[in-house]
Write a structure and sequence with these properties.
- The protein has 220 residues and is α+β, with helices and mostly antiparallel strands.
- It has 2 domains: 5-68 and 128-219, no CATH class; 69-127, no CATH class.
- 41% of the residues lie in helices and 12% in strands.
Length: 220
């Protein structure tokens, strides 16, 4: 099937509340990032809708805030510096950042590390790797996002996938088109994990992860 990867990834398909659920941040926090004091360029302002690329940008913002405790003013300063040095349409996704849990950095050719919070000074670093590894890109340029289910750690399984070319950008079991929302709905209608696993031809562990993902998203 032929498709325009960039166009699909830029299509405004998500509401703010939906993105907040997927990246595990409070709705008001996400609204501050995208509306009241915007850090990213949204796919649509009226109505307020986010694209798949916006979703991944919010995922990276959540890593900077929740895991690495980088302040929003420093994120803003870093993005401004990066826009001057190396413009990117979606720098939070397209540009690998590094951090020492105080400032943000990028690595230049020759392995030089530039401090974006200090107008380009060289500095030491620690890689923001765990969150970036939840994002993959295929040969066509299409991104895939594997959100955290419960914990923001490297041990967290990549059981759930979000892609704009599968299930209209809704979460599915990785490697399939099976909707996690449908799985959870049927489970809460008292169908057993084993029965669902048999019907869909998937291991019970994957069915359990889909239910766990939907339960955590609802709680968030």
């Amino acid at each position: 099937m032929q498709y325009d990867a960039r166009r699909l990834m830029e299509t405004p398909i998500y509401g703010a509340a939906e993105v907040a659920r997927y990246v595990r941040v409070p709705y008001q926090t996400l609204r501050y990032w995208i509306r009241e004091n915007p850090l990213i360029e949204l796919a649509s302002l009226s109505p307020l809708r986010l694209s798949f690329m916006n979703l991944m940008e919010c995922h990276m913002l959540s890593s900077m805030r929740s895991t690495y405790r980088i302040s929003i003013p420093k994120v803003r300063a870093s993005l401004a510096t990066l826009a001057r040095i190396h413009p990117h349409p979606h720098p939070l996704v397209d540009q690998p950042f590094e951090t020492d849990q105080v400032d943000l950095f990028i690595r230049e050719l020759g392995d030089e590390v530039i401090n974006l919070c200090r107008s380009g000074q060289l500095a030491l670093k620690e890689i923001i790797g765990v969150h970036l590894k939840r994002i993959e890109v295929d040969a066509t340029g299409m991104y895939r996002f594997f959100p955290f289910i419960e914990e923001r750690t490297a041990r967290e399984p990549r059981s759930i996938m979000i892609s704009p070319v599968i299930s209209f950008g809704k979460p599915v079991i990785s490697g399939t088109g099976i909707s996690t929302a449908v799985i959870a709905s049927r489970f809460h209608a008292r169908e057993s994990v084993d029965a669902l696993a048999e019907e869909y031809g998937r291991p019970p562990r994957e069915i359990e992860e889909a239910i766990r993902w939907e339960s955590a998203a609802t709680a968030a």
